[in-house]
Amino acid sequence: MAGLDWTYGVSTLRQWESADYEPSLPVSEKSNPLTRDIDRASAYSIVKMLQVCDSQMFQKEAGTIYQRLLSDQVVKTLMEVAKRVEVIIKDPQESCVVMSGCGTSGRLAFLISSGFNKALSQLNQSEVYSYIIAGGDRALLSSQEAPEDDPRLGVLNLKKVCEGKKRVLFIGISCGLSAPFVAGQLDFCLQHPEVYTPVLVGFNPAHQARDEPIQDCTFTFHSVVQRMQELAKSQKAFLINPAVGPEAISGSSRMKGGSATKILLEAAFSAAHAATSSNTPITHNGVLQHMMAYERTLAVTYSQTDGITTLVEAAGQSLQCSRHVYYLGWGSLALLGLIDASECSPTFGADYEDVRGFIRGGYRELNNNDGPLTSLGPKFSIAHEDFLHLILPCLTDKDTVLLIYTHSDDATEVGNMARRVREKTPNLHAVYHQADGDTAASLQQDDIKKLCLSTLKITWPQEALVSGTLQHMRELSTKLVLNAVSTGAHVLKGKIYQNHMIDLQVTNTKLYRRATRLLQKLSACPEEKCEEALLKAIYRVDMLTLEMTSSDITTHTCFARNSTKVVPLALVILLTGWSLVEAESHLKQQPIVREAVAQWMW
Ligand code: S6P
């Protein structure tokens, strides 16, 4: 690929596509050959690996079974979806577009619906977008993995949002084509075609959709997809499921999965908005051009590898000495900070205090369905004022603070915040987006820059301003930078083994299965033995009772919510044959899991 000669040949870039590469796993769960050694890489190499991984999103179709982001069929389907959205925007009475997902997919549904509703309001048009996130609004800011397994809850949530509607375009997002919560909603749509048109967004080919039985249901995700495929022939349902390649950290769909969700849906909705506001027809080329603007976004963002590396190093050092990373953002970019921070706990088993996001204007700016959530606990304090009251007094130079803003945000306000932080720590950095040739902004920017240890300045060409894609590009760019910072920092902290997160939470079926597979891969023990060790670690016993072994996975995952270090413990038990107490004490002495298990794995 042009411009991506960084140590990789085309065969390595495309190795995951080969039929015999981890054949039992769907793309979204495969491990990426490019990042096999990410756990031993420098900050610079980590950023480079993430760049190459992200570039896989835009690889062209190459005669394999995989459709890609820019494939003809994908663009065609996006056009059809855009046309449905156009109809709804023009006639919003009793119609709506609902996006729904779990974890990151739900957070993206929220981000995208907020952005496009705002755009409609600015044109004095009715808002038509709604979002659903499994676990409700608290899941926007914290890890709620269990509701993902609940198809009935999905349906209840959908019915509530669509009450009184006569026409609903339902967009279910599940990167792995796996979440029962979304499968339940799609099944419900299929049963009520007079109201609902279902659209599925995900990043595995249809045959790789999860086929595991769902408790008390007659369908699986896979069977729902098959029914949708049938209806797709007559455009009564739509599947948008290109492959974007395995994630840099195996299964971490918050990364490419989240980015690609944003790219696809924004391309479709932007086309619909242009069609209604300026009578621009929805064309193949229009949608394609919009998507290619995101490819340029990757290039613009990663042209700042040194700047991103500096941020990864700073954040990594903070986490390594058990200190914290804070994102202080303005506008929609702050949302990406909140989202990135909230994902560190499910992805890396991090504490909510390790990486935290704050947004100017707090819940007023967030404008979420349920309003302020501050009463739910300290992790739901998200305003800049909260940062000033709760965090600033205890800030030290071991903490890393990132200001995230653009040239259109209030520079005086950013400057004031920078000064307050600077009084406490020099470890202050900025991620700043400006438009090409914007000299007025750069004068005030100079003052802020002087207060910061480093400034990652991302300059957007004027054409982005004209085409109206600037906000989307800045958001994706910020997402890539923050994903790199939080992922890189946790890698440097030793949270990853090869490219696997070992200390994953086992709080839903998908994660339970992933944990068992990981134990098999790392211990080379049979599945049965691995599951046994996993259960011992979940229930904290050396001998499993009949009640434990005969319970279903939901019971195990519920119990696992209160257990820590489950997978590392199971792994040590498998590798050493030690008792639970011995394994626990070993992990206490060596909390870096990679180091704790390394001696048995080489
Ligand atoms: C992944 C993230 C998870 C997923 C969630 C939904 O990095 O931590 O919360 O977003 O499990 O996955 P999916 O495949 O249904 O979009």
TrEMBL record:
Record carries keyword Lipid metabolism: no
Coiled-coil intervals, chain numbering: none
Gene Ontology biological-process annotations: carbohydrate derivative metabolic process; glucose homeostasis; response to fructose
The cross-references to InterPro entries, in alphabetical order and at most eight, read: GKRP_SIS_2, Glucokinase_regulatory_CS, MURQ/GCKR, SIS_dom, SIS_dom_sf
Q: Which GO terms describe its cellular component?
A: cytosol; nucleoplasm
List the keywords (alphabetical).
Carbohydrate metabolism
For this protein, the record's Pfam families field holds: GKRP-like_C, GKRP_SIS_2, GKRP_SIS_N
Q: Which SUPFAM superfamilies match?
A: SIS domain (SSF53697)
State if NADP is listed as a keyword: no
This entry's Gene Ontology molecular function terms read: carbohydrate binding; enzyme binding; enzyme inhibitor activity; fructose-6-phosphate binding
SIS domain boundaries? 85-278, 315-495
State the protein's name: Glucokinase regulator
| Species of provenance | Pundamilia nyererei
Q: Which gene encodes it?
A: gckr
